[in-house]
Amino acid sequence: MDIKPLRYFIAIAKTESFTKAAQQLGVAQPAVSMAIKKLEADLDLTLIHRADRNIGLTDEGKKLLIHAEKIIQATDDALLEMSELKGLSQGEVRVGIPSMLGSYYFPPILMAFRHKYPTITLRVIEGGTWQLQKMLESGELDLSVIVAETLPDSLQTQALIREEMLVTVATDHPFSQLTKISPEAFFEEELVMFKEGYFHRRIVDKLAKACNRTPKIGFETNLIPLIKSITQQGFGISTLLAMVIEEDDELITRSFDPPIWLDLGIAWRKDSYLSKANRAFLEFVSEHGRYKRKT
């Protein structure tokens, strides 16, 4: 079987559109339509519902999608492994990094890696840890930073860094007079939070559920400078990693009582081939992470 129609089929399944799939693949739409019709004819099955511009997979199509993704992943892994027999002279690393780490922890590491391996292309995707984990599992990423406690069986991880989540308030906030903040006291305040899907938000939501409280969220944003600014002006309090707070931020941080620590790791799929470029990046990042890890 020619696997090209399977690539077209997967693109249609993900975009729910022949037009968008063709654009994503960089081919003409008629070529995509013809390839799918031939695939259906070869299998003697209808794989896609085509009704009033609404594209969806049939039950048979949903079953084929599972196998198609495995076939394409295995093929790509094999081609990559064969090409690497020539050595680490080129390659690509697709890595997912949560926004907070992408802004404050990773920039010097990424620049140092690029300096050491100038022929390797780095593609950094920022987002929420849940979104990045799903992209990793589906093969859209090679590596991703995730919160270790959420690790599914399909992924393998290597410890990277341990950071404390700190209650963050304006310098004149009453919490500045305390040494530790209880979750109950924290949830009495109006909060400035990341949007759903980000590890900070998931930890706060989990903490609220554990103490049977409903968070009073006044602002939702993924922009760290905006979170800091709103908090500085006293319109709410937040929680940020220690690495994010700088001396001139005019913010006070306090530990939760008990303290909340996040163990962050870099993960990859267990069943996929990890290229030489990715192994080089993994080793490089892990080496830097050891020196920065807190206990």
UniProtKB/TrEMBL annotation:
PROSITE patterns: HTH_LYSR. It comes from the Bacteria. The keyword Aminoacyl-tRNA synthetase does not apply. GO terms for cellular component: cytosol. GO terms for molecular function: DNA binding; DNA-binding transcription factor activity. CDD domains: PBP2_LTTR_substrate. Residues 1-58 form the HTH lysR-type domain. Pfam families: HTH_1, LysR_substrate. The keyword Hydrolase does not apply. Belongs to the LysR transcriptional regulatory family. This is LysR family transcriptional regulator.
